[in-house]
Amino acid sequence: MVRNTKQSRSAIKRRRLLQGAGAAGITAIAGCLGGSDDEATFDVTMEVNADNDDRVQMVELIAESMEQSGYFNVDVETFEWGDYVQRVMDTEYGNEGVLPCIGLGGTFSPHSFCEALHHSDNHGQCCNLVGVNVSELDEALDAARFGADVAEDDELRRERYDEVWSLLADVRASSITHFDLEAGVVNTDVHGYRHWPFQQTLIGNFMYLPTEEQVTWIDRSDATPDETDLSDLQEGDTIRIGIAENPSSFDPPYSTDTTSTIAQDLIFETLVRNDSEGVLYPWLAESYELVETNDIERVDYADYMETVSVEEDIPDHDGQVYITHPEDNPAEDDEVRILTRDGAAAAIEDGVFGMQYRYTLREGVEFHDGTEMTAEDVVASGFRQESSDISAQTFNSTLYYDEVDEYTVDIYAQIPDAEAERNLPPSAVMPKEYAEMEASAIDPRQSVDQPIGTGPYELVEFDEQQYIEYSKFDSYWVEQMGVDSIDWFDGPSGFPDGPVIDTVEMSIVPENSSRSAALQSDEIDMTYGLTTDTLDEYDESDDYIVDSVEAGGYEYIQYPLNVEPWDDERLRKAVNHLVPRQNIVDNVLNGWARPAWTDIPSLAQGTGTADYDALESEIKPQNEYDPERAEELIEEVIEDHDL
């Protein structure tokens, strides 16, 4: 894993991209393309959230590149983050014909870097914004993840993903611009801090993560972090963190934005936890095992399905539709066959399921309300994800949750799934009565005063748009049992039995410059997501520490491929050749990123490609800045469409 490393970059500090070096790099395009002397053929609107200055400037640079071609008039519209999220998640958004730009945090699974954006099941969830619905692509995505062949053969799985990356380049529904170099900045009172590659879980993981032997503490003496180690660990105090957005929800299954997950991560936990290389370890589960795999397909559930009217029953069906019969098409058929919870239970009773995982829970784990976590809570938490905002990511795999006994849970996959071990456990374990509440109800803004989980911190107070305060949970299960009680832990004897900081205060400060000012004036101890020229300044200072790692986060624009003229893949490929990826990294991000020559970052390459060098040689030419090829493609579109 890359740490504390930046790409080679220019010495330019805060440049305005449409002046100086940034503009000079694209002004040369104008003389290369034949359309530059004519009236622009295409009017385009690009949309982006206003709160992310780097992203806005990136979009401005892409827009300028498109305009300099002579073929495009481009308007850039900005929206406040909360409004933007609601806008782009609307299933009708793709019909507006605009090009959205947004960021996404992937996982260690290669699937998260292709499925979320491009599988038709994710339209309106995260993050198929424009309604990508390409059957060949859906089939390729499924073939790389589902089936006994790829679940049991990693090499075959890698080969299937190589086919996916090639197909994505051909379809060109999205343009991933770069992979972030995720960086956090702390003052020298923060000791033991290391950044995490995924922003959505960074705070919980740098606070306390036994898989990495990671713990953070506060030392407000003159000692600097490079002078201390675990033997100098201090307990107590408060860490003050500046976060970039207001969380939209404290209800995990009804959260699709990164900031909400950050806010929830100290409160809720799940059955397994991973290290920085993606290796999974039992967590709330003391152990787990794969019990059985059956080589079946989704059509094998036909006998357990019910037939419903598409017009009347599907939108308001009572319960999650786990599977729609693969031979039925809700867009064309009057009736379709669907599998719901009752049918899934009947199938399992007859031995019809893809995979069975058994989780043995730790006994004595307490929720924040003092009740003990049992299998009943885990099962209810899993079923809470039914029909939720993340159901497309869970119920494309999950078949059923079953309480075997008080401390044993079986979770079944629909068909063999290479990601089952990572994907099947519920996203957050909560008390049964909370798990059965209505959508988005687990939130201090709703009927529940305090979200309740098993995590190391409890929510104390939330002031909308202002701050969030947490206090250490006195009965946290790791502290009660001791970290040495965890079978796989082999860390140093001085490693603590839980986080050592008493209080976490998160100030909600959307403006990057304001968060930076708060850090410099000692109002906060840590923040993230600062503009990259600011990172340069902190990196050069002795008063702050910048820790960075190549992340699972990436930025992308999407093309409304169901709206003319974007339904022509040649136009999408042409714009992709006008995306100046290296220029973005050098002049927008000051080297704090890596150009996305392929759609897969380094942390997911292990199971995501058979040969990364060969993949990059194949795909990179299709993602390189190439105005001459863009012109050829655009002229073909104009001629064929008589524009």
What would you note in describing this structure?
With 643 residues, the chain is an alpha+beta fold. Helix 2 links the parallel strand 1 and strand 2. Helix 1 (20-27) runs parallel beside helix 2, helix 5 (135-145) packs antiparallel against helix 7 (154-171) and helix 7 runs parallel beside helix 21 (612-623). The relative contact order is 0.18.
Short structural description:
With 643 residues, this protein is of the alpha+beta class.
> Approximately how much beta-strand content do the residues carry?
15-25%
Extract low-pLDDT stretches: 1-37
Integer average pLDDT: 88
Shape: globular
CA distance, first residue to last residue: 49 Å
Specify the structural class.
alpha+beta
Number of helices: 22
Measured as a percent range, the helix fraction is 25-40%
Number of strands: 24
Query: Radius of gyration, Cα only, in angstroms?
Result: 25 Å
For the sheet with most strands, the description reads: 11 strands, mixed
